[in-house]
Amino acid sequence: MRVAYRTNKGTFYEGKVEQALQSKKFEKYKGKINLIFTSPPFPLNRKKKYGNLQGEEYINWLTNIGILLKDYLAEDGSIVMEIGNSWEPKRPVMSTFPLKAMLDFLEKGEYSLCQQFVWNNPAKLPSPAQWVNIERNRVKDSFTYIWWMSKTDFPKADNRKVLVEYSDSMKSLLKTKKYNSGKRPSEHNIGEKSFLTNNKGAIPSNVITAANTQSGTSYQRFCKEKGYELHPARMPSALAEFFINMLTDEGDIILDPFGGSNTTGAVAESLNREWISIEPNEEYIKGSRGRFNKENKLKYYHKKKTK
Prior knowledge:
Helix content: 25-40%
CATH class of the largest domain: Alpha Beta
Low-confidence stretches: none
Strand order of the largest sheet: 9-5-6-4-3-10-11-2-1-12
Oligomer: single chain
CATH superfamily of the largest domain: Vaccinia Virus protein VP39
Structural class: alpha/beta
Mean pLDDT: 88
């Protein structure tokens, strides 16, 4: 493990997460990480350039990382992990391996499952192509799960930091101050004050819709200019922004153990948080520098030449 570069707020390490979490260099972070936000390689049925294991090997690998991460998490810290869907080879049947992997991660790491989220990507290409485009016997798979976990049932969290704009009907309701309160068929008794208080926004749901269709970003332009390969599984900044805002405060430390193109680090820095990222692919690390401008004062660390 080596330092690839630093910014005003963070450090990007080049290396495998298993090695990093067991190295002496990393011990200084134990018990200090307020949020681990990441998306590990998915358990796909074909190999990708960014690396992905399969079957029981994948489950054991991810579970062991979950156990290692626990020592680094603050007592009121959170782990937020996106896990992608997988399909059985040559069959129009979804694999249960992603869910098994997350259940093992949760149980063997002895974490509490605070809440499960769904990321809906409306711009995702139709897949699996064989069953959606050719056979036409399945619909487009456009969502992935996001699991929010913690060492405690009550981690640091505040949904007032991620309020969304009121709907037009709610704005009208607040203006007229007239609401049909009373008992509902569900037997809930809705009081007038419940919906006539202006809380400066609505509480968001656990379904997050965010398209990953940005083009011409500073990251993409930088990779094109330098000839670096774009990371094939980039996460939209909106996801990182949502959870960093809700689960951390300014000055807190965010860790992404599967850094990729460092979306997490860039968003954390923009929100005045400290960050740490880990990634074994040197090409992706080089490209990730394009997410930062001159004001971030990047300091590069070149590899020592070996004989």
